[in-house]
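2024-03-11 09:14:02 INFO worker-7 job=invfold-0412 stage=load source=structure_tokens
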């Protein structure tokens, strides 16, 4: 069967409305897909005989295969199962350099179009096209004269890697038949390949700086410390991680591939310019951290370990009860009355007013003038702001709340409720986890998302690639179960291990399970730098297919070269809302992302100060000697004040890449951040786990390396951006921190101050509110916060935790299946 004319595009697998389990006895490839060769031959008429001969020989070889490999001759074959076949595309064509050129591509089918930035990036290069790349490499091994080509994604086809065989004359039949044999052998080799490897592309930005022939990629093993190490053990660990375990040269097209790695070990890699000696600061072109190998050869990004919930060995002590008096008050008596405060009710339209709030039991009993009403305790709110407790819509508190039940890092800044299970990380059993919260007792209220990583791992284990129909069916079943147990939605983390393997159609299909429960899809999108706009389009498209709301996690645009994209980012979200999609987002008010909060100063001096000439994005921490006055200032201020270059600073401080002098990398533009802050569809979040008071007070080393977003996000937002910079009104700031996230979670009785609502409250002094620290030390509590109430009980009073653990597990409305 022949197809004349165009080189046929790979079709995107559509999202299917209904899934059924089906048995399939056909052989599977390393990713579990049905192993079948679907061959499409596109050839000009003058090469038709070659095409027919090649096709006939391939049919003969596959039909005699002892393991029953399927062979289809393209889309016109009624038996072809293109959705589960490895598609070989064979194109006969002419070019000026090669009158006869045969191009063989093994195409990956899941995505119809991939952003070009993904294909150019080492972190994303083969996420969607690893089958095609591996097949091309197997073909290249059998055809030494062939060239591996890069095929960038376009609107109608996936990006892939393919093999090109050129010859000066049309190939005679005597060479066509052996070529068919090589294709067949490559296919068999691909099927039997169980080696672990890693592949990627050298980015264009590197090729501009350095010719491809001068580039080498060095691989190093990363060793996680399994325990607290002695100095000698740490030294030995560092020495082991400095050993180069593999060096590869990229193909002329920029593709690189290394095999023989351990699938369970993390790695780092460096792209280096071999024309420069090791002392040259510009020898290192690019680094990649915590990369792991895979059977599919897919380049990995940072593999965060799934933080499973492990209940403590012993139950936490019962919450300390604050005893006001021994007699039980009658129903007309308030437990607390906060008098004369300036009240923000948490709604978008609500205006501040001065009044009293009465608390009885867990709830607000009355709002208004309560002078003379009986109460057990009176708190003066004169000159203070009273607002609902802050709701952290993007939290990772589930990772350690059972080991830090006082949640000191959050209570000290006014957070009373968190939504955990974000970025695809959550316990697999939502119901069991929430039950443990209920019996253990914690300081804050906790709502949960079901993370995509445990769902996918439960079904597919560690296997990479596209799931089978029945596997997606079971992913849907597990998601449905989590929603029945009280989850508020489903989260993905599309740069992290496991979740990054998810395909768009897979995520859309799973998200359909959320709609009957009123759940939403929360996504750490597939990229936050060059590819950020395409990444949020993907998240929006998933929501539109599944017809569920979308929450974009920790909105930001990373790296100075991408600053300015936030305006378009917000416009894409606005356009989606105009089309009818409910899409919102969240952000933290810090210019450093999580990993960027603590870098070695040497690394930033070389990368940002020398190579990128951007010293203004480096925030200095604790500087020694004569430079101490620049602690807490930008590198640009030091260089200007001392009239020196980054190279001179490195020499003066005798810095190396092992020196323990640290700084923060301000990779987010403040202008971009403020644009998002002004949007009334963007909430405030921490993107952090909880930390206990014991750790805060006793672990000085950790407090010096932690990101401040865990400890002082809301004081930073209100003091710096609402009060000092007037980015938004206090009313809007309170709404973005309370009423808006409560609306997203459909919590009508939280996030607001009204009679009948839960008494989650924050009383603060707006003039004295101060985050009290930057990136250097997280020990001091934020200043200006007087009281924090959780479910009617004071958890924080005048700068001190009370010891009360009055938080609750929160269950979504879908806890009972509709």
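2024-03-11 09:14:09 INFO worker-7 stage=emit residues=818
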């Amino acid at each position: 069967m022949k197809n004349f004319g165009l080189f046929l595009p790979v079709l995107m697998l559509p999202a299917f409305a209904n899934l059924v389990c089906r048995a399939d006895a056909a052989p599977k490839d390393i990713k579990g897909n049905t192993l079948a060769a679907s061959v499409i031959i596109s050839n000009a008429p003058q090469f038709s005989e070659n095409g027919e001969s090649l096709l006939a020989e391939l049919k003969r070889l596959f039909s005699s295969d002892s393991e029953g490999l399927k062979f289809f001759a393209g889309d016109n074959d009624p038996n072809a199962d293109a959705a589960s076949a490895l598609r070989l595309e064979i194109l006969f064509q002419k070019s000026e350099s090669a009158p006869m050129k045969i191009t063989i591509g093994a195409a990956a089918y899941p995505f119809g179009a991939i952003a070009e930035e993904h294909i150019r990036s080492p972190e994303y290069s083969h996420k969607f096209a690893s089958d095609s790349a591996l097949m091309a490499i197997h073909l290249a091994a059998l055809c030494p004269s062939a060239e591996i080509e890069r095929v960038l994604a376009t609107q109608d086809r996936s990006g892939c890697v393919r093999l090109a065989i050129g010859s000066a004359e049309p190939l005679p039949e005597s060479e066509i038949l052996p070529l068919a044999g090589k294709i067949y052998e490559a296919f068999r080799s691909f099927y039997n390949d169980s080696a672990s490897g890693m592949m990627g592309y050298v980015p264009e930005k590197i090729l501009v700086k350095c010719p491809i022939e001068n580039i080498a990629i060095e691989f190093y093993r990363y060793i996680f410390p399994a325990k607290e190490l002695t100095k000698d053990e740490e030294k030995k660990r560092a020495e082991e991680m400095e050993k180069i375990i593999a060096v590869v040269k990229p193909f002329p097209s920029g593709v690189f591939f290394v095999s023989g790695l351990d699938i369970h070990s993390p790695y780092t890699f460096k792209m280096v310019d071999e024309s420069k000696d090791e002392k040259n600061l510009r020898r290192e072109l690019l680094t990649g951290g915590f990369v792991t190998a895979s059977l599919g050869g897919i380049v990995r990004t940072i593999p965060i370990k799934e933080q499973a919930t492990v209940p403590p060995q012993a139950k936490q002590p019962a919450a300390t009860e604050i005893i006001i008096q021994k007699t039980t008050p009658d129903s007309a008596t308030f437990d607390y009355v906060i008098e004369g405060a300036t009240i923000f009710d948490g709604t978008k339209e609500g205006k501040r007013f001065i009044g009293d709030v009465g608390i009885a039991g867990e709830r607000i009993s009355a709002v208004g003038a309560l002078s003379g009403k009986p109460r057990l305790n009176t708190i003066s709110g004169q000159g203070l702001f009273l607002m609902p407790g802050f709701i952290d819509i993007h939290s990772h508190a589930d990772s350690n709340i059972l080991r830090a039940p006082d949640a000191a890092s959050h209570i000290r800044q006014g957070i009373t409720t968190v939504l955990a299970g974000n970025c695809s990380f959550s316990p697999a059993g939502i119901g069991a986890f929430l039950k443990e919260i209920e019996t253990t007792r914690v300081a804050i209220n906790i709502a949960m998302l079901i993370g995509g990583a445990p769902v996918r791992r439960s079904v597919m284990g560690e296997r990479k690639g596209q799931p089978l129909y029945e596997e997606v069916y079971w992913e849907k079943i597990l998601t449905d179960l989590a929603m029945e147990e009280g989850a508020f939605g489903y989260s993905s983390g599309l740069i992290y291990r496991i979740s990054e393997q998810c395909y768009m159609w897979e995520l859309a299909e799973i998200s359909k399970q959320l709609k009957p429960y009123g759940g939403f899809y929360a996504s750490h999108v597939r990229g936050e730098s060059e590819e950020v706009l395409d990444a949020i389009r993907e998240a929006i498209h998933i929501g539109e297919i599944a017809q569920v709301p979308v929450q974009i996690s920790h909105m930001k645009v990373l790296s100075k070269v991408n600053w300015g994209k936030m305006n378009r980012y917000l416009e894409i979200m606005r356009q989606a809302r105009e089309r009818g999609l409910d899409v919102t987002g969240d952000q933290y008010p810090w210019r450093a992302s999580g990993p960027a909060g603590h870098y070695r100063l040497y690394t930033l001096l070389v990368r940002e100060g020398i190579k990128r000439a951007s010293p203004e994005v480096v925030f200095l921490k604790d500087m020694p000697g004569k430079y101490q006055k620049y602690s807490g200032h930008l590198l640009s201020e030091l260089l200007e004040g001392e009239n020196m270059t980054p190279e001179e600073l490195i020499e003066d401080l005798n810095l190396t890449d092992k020196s323990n002098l640290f700084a923060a990398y301000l990779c987010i533009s403040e202008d971009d951040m403020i644009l998002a802050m002004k949007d009334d569809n963007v909430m405030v979040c921490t993107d952090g786990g909880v930390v206990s008071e014991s750790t805060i007070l006793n672990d000085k080393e950790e407090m010096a390396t932690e990101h401040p977003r865990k400890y002082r996000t809301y004081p930073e937002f209100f003091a710096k951006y609402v009060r000092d910079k007037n980015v938004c009104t206090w009313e809007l700031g309170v709404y973005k921190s309370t009423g808006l996230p409560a609306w997203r979670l459909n919590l009508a009785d939280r996030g607001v101050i009204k009679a009948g609502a839960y008494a989650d409250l924050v009383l603060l002094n707006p003039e004295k509110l101060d985050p009290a620290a930057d990136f250097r030390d997280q020990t001091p509590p934020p200043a200006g916060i007087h009281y924090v109430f959780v479910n009617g009980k004071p958890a924080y009073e005048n700068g001190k935790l009370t010891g009360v653990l009055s938080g609750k597990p929160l269950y979504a409305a879908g806890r009972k299946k509709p």
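2024-03-11 09:14:09 INFO worker-7 stage=report msg="The chain is about 30% helix and 20% strand."
2024-03-11 09:14:10 INFO worker-7 job finished
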